[in-house]
Write a structure and sequence with these properties.
1% strand; 2 strands; two-stranded antiparallel ribbon; mainly alpha; Farnesyl Diphosphate Synthase; 352 residues; single chain; globular
Length: 352
């Protein structure tokens, strides 16, 4: 992946921290019972499977921009905590969506269902796989808190708010899928934007920025939070809109996920809402679990023909422009501003 320079050093340090933590924990619990090595190995494989580490990067540069020392290990621990939270959300999200693959590999619940079947255990393999994955996601969530032990109270409070927002956004997401929120009407688009904000925008960019500032200068968080939100929220929404486009039009060999899954699951996105408002044929098949490749191609054509894809792409450009304007007003160091500008450009142009 062609990551910007602003990500690479942060990503390497965070991955080292995660690897050391999970190596130690696998050995510790494996000494209690050898069978406990399996969940810890699966968690480590998932965490280190090639994520972009954008969230730790936003946290790091807000930390540096607010006066934190670039070599302070506290911000690396915070980045690792964010990645563990992200992992917990993805492991649980894969169960909710019934996803088979993530980062080009089988998802955790599929991995453990296969383990169950391969060893000839009693009971249902799928239920075992989902139960194991829920527990592994919970382990990741617990480690996310442990990694922030000793952080300033303002940083801990920011992180706890981020964890709450992720769960709120996830519930709105499954509710929208169940209600068919992609149907016609302005309320559908408003709900899609709300989901976008809480499920992704806040915990991908806004809250990592706040966390970095809270770690570096807790007494300045009141001053910095608003300007950081002005930069982070529109960029986070652009990130999710780009994700929605990749879920429908992305190259699965690059994204690591099958194309069309969002269409089969009936994901309540702005892209789907716009297409459904403009062509009834889209709503008639959107969310059907039996969509074949030809069906997916037909829905893609409707999205193109209605102008929904072009409108979402314009929205991404407008949101990134708003974010860049807000960046100019951020009271942070010049080095951090340059790095955040790099990250903003990457968000808009990424292909996975």
């Amino acid at each position: 992946m062609n990551l910007p320079d602003a990500v690479r050093p942060v990503a390497a340090a965070v991955e080292d921290r995660l690897r050391q933590l999970l190596d130690r924990e696998r050995d510790r619990w494996g000494a209690v019972d050898r069978d406990l090595e399996d969940p810890f190995t699966a968690l480590q494989d998932y965490v280190l499977a090639g994520g972009k580490r954008l969230r730790p990067a936003f946290c790091y540069w807000a930390f540096v921009g607010a006066g934190g020392r670039p070599d302070d290990r506290a911000v690396i621990d915070a980045g690792a905590a964010i990645e563990m939270l992200h992992t917990a959300a993805l492991v649980h999200d894969d169960i909710i969506d019934g996803s088979l693959r993530r980062h080009g590999a089988e998802t955790v619940h599929i991995r453990f269902a296969r383990l169950h079947g391969g060893r000839g255990w009693s009971g249902e393999a799928d239920r075992f796989g989902e139960g194991a994955a829920i527990l592994i996601g919970d382990l990741s969530l617990i480690y996310s808190s442990l990694l922030l032990a000793g952080a300033p109270p303002a940083a801990v409070a920011t992180f706890e708010e981020m964890r709450l927002e992720v769960n709120v956004g996830q519930y709105l997401d499954i509710l929208g899928t169940a209600e068919g929120v992609a149907g016609p009407g302005p309320a559908a688009a408003a709900r899609a934007q709300r989901i976008c904000r809480f499920k992704t925008a806040k915990y991908t960019i806004e809250r990592p920025l706040h966390l970095g500032a809270a770690l570096a200068a807790p007494d300045r968080l009141g001053e910095l939070a608003g300007p950081l939100s002005d930069f982070g929220l529109p960029l986070g929404e652009a990130f999710q809109l780009k994700d929605d486009l990749l879920g429908v039009f992305g190259d699965p060999t690059i994204t690591g996920k099958p194309v069309g899954d969002d269409l089969r699951e009936g994901k309540p996105t702005l892209l789907a809402s716009l297409a459904a408002q403009r062509d009834a044929r889209f709503g008639a098949r959107f969310g059907a679990s039996d969509l074949n490749p030809a069906d997916v191609a037909a829905l893609q054509e409707i999205i193109e023909a209605t102008g929904a894809r072009a409108e979402v792409e314009r929205s991404i450009d407008e949101l990134v422009a708003r974010s860049e304007t807000a960046l100019d007003r951020l009271p942070i160091s010049g080095e951090a501003r340059t790095a955040l500008a790099q990250l903003a450009r990457f968000v808009a142009g990424r292909d996975r």
